Amino acid sequence: MAIPLVNSVASWFLKKRFHQIDLFLKYPHEVQNELLMNLLTISKDTEIGKTYDFKSIHNYREFSQRIPISSYEDYQNLIERSRKGEHNIFWPKPIKWFAKSSGTTDAKSKFIPVSSDSLEDCHYAASKDLLCMYLNNNESSTLFNGKNLRLGGSKELYEENGTIFGDLSAILIHNMPFWAEFSSTPSNKVSLMSDWEYKMQAIVNESINENVTSLAGVPSWMLVLLNNVLETSGTKTILDVWPNLEVYFHGGVSFLPYVDQFKSIIPSKSVKYYEIYNASEGFFAIQDRNQSDELLLMLDYGIFYEFIPMQTHGTPTEVLIPLSQVEKGINYAIVITTNAGLWRYKIGDTILFTSTKPYRIKVTGRTKHFINVFGEELIIENTDKALKIVAKKTKSEILDYTVAPIFMEGKTKGAHEWIIEFKTPPKDLGYFNELLDNSLKSINSDYESKRYKNITLNKPVIHSAKQGLFYKWMKRNDKLGGQHKIPRLSNSRDFLEELLKID
After folding, report:
1. To 10 degrees, what angle do helices 219-233 and 196-207 make?
2. How many helices (H) and strands (E) does the chain have?
3. Is residue 130 domain-shared with residue 277, that is, in the same domain?
4. How far is Cα 473 from Cα 409, in angstroms, rounded to an integer?
5. From 16, 194, 253, 402, which residue has the greatest number of CB atoms within 10 Å?
6. Is residue 93 part of a domain?
7. 387 shares its domain with 357
8. DSSP 8-state symbol, 91
9. Phi and psi dihedrals of 145, rounded to 5?
10. Where in the sequence is the domain holding 397, given as residue range(s)?
11. Do residues 127 and 268 both lie within one domain?
12. pLDDT digits over 122-171, tens only?
């Protein structure tokens, strides 16, 4: 396909789409309310629609009073019936695809329904929007002169009872239009290989001689791939291999711990970094400006949003609010109603709003991934920030980390126990620990108060992990590649104890 033609099509789509985006920017609450009513109307004759009498729901207040908040466990039986070929249970159209997600530490697999509507109107729509926003912000872009290197689909797809399950990325790659594959590398065949380690080298071999202008994938695994590219090519930087690289689209985990490593192997101020926020359940937000760490919440992808202030989450006084009631700077758990039939569903992520005109967010972590054993309310955003500060001061590089509590015993105070895998370790781990402790105090006042004169918390305990420790754990637990992540923070010691036992 000729590049000028691609650019002209993209330009046409861009102008058309920006009119729609402008609509939800100006009228966010009206767009969200209309979307909710449409979802209810479409699903009124489903099993769940009849159970809660969707026909008689006329506004958000009735919706919030009638339909309970749900988790995967609440949906599990309905999903299993749908996977066996039953239709019209929670969404009127047959659902053929299910995104398999094991979560981070939970061994039990989840199968998230992916309807044709969510594929087209959410996931693929977001991919187009991402390109449009990037091109709008970078008019001299030559993105379409080359190919996008995509990293995903770490598992093959499996068919059972007429339905298919696998990684969301594998589902998306399988259903991509031909023109998208034409502009991507590696091929679908390589992308969908099941053996991660074999696939990694196959991606390198297939892509190394292509004109790669963009990258897309989870930072932790993309870094593994890029280091493999450097090793195979015998070059010092990625720009020696792909001189026309101009942007990396990333999501899945916080980019903060990886920024310096990427800039080290891609030493160019002109290369852009664009963040996305998506999950098996849907695509939620996109970075819409260059050099920004905020994401624009997308309000017309068939997803209706509600939020739980984290100070009430999981308590008898738990409160749910619509978009119109959110405030800046408060940590919220996200609850979604979707065009794949998830109704008031907790996805397990936490965000805070940096702006309400328009609605821009930062992803702060997971509802289960924090430490609050001693009232310190430590979240992933805190630890990522602190580590970035300390790594810079100690000229160290961090590959991965996890933190768990040391529980109080008798008169012994509690503490936080860290396992950190360094690419470049600090010269003095004791000094690193001191800086980390002080940085956390400056970032999190609750942590600071618990550390005051060691009243509740003693100084952190840090282990410097052997090279490849986290990779070894991922391999042992069949979690290599794709969307699998290392659990950063936990209120239990289970994961940390597992790591300590690995030779």
Report:
1. 60
2. 19, 21
3. yes
4. 29
5. 402
6. no
7. no
8. S
9. -75, -15
10. 370-501
11. yes
12. 999 998 899 888 988 998 999 988 999 998 765 667 788 889 988 888 88
Q: What's the structural domain count of the chain?
A: 3
Burial label for 181, CB within 10 Å (0-12, 13-18, 19+), is: middle
| Helix ranges (DSSP H) in 67-177 | 72-83, 116-118, 125-137, 168-174
Question: For residue 337, what are the CA distances in angstroms to 96, 319, 340, 347?
Answer: 19, 17, 8, 10
Please check whether residue 344 lies inside any domain of the structure. yes
- DSSP string of 409-461, one letter each residue: BTTB-BEEEEEEEEEE--S-HHHHHHHHHHHHHHH-HHHHHHHGGGSSBPPPE
Lowest mean pLDDT among 55-59, 95-99, 222-226: 222-226
> Is there a domain that residue 314 lies in?
yes
Neighbours of 101 (CB within 10 A): 21
Tens of pLDDT along 64-103? 999 999 999 999 999 999 999 999 999 999 999 999 875 5
pTM for the model:
0.82
Report d(CA 153, CA 455) in Å as an integer.
48
The residue with tokens 């979240």 is 379
C-alpha distances in Å from residue 200, one per residue of 221, 393, 481: 10, 33, 9
Q: Whole-angstrom Cα distance, residue 56 to residue 58? A: 6
Same domain, 263 and 315: no
Best CA proximity match to 41, nearest among 339, 346, 347, 345: 339
Please name the amino acid found at residue 193.
Answer: M
For residue 328, the cross-strand partners are 353
Tokens of 469: 């420790």
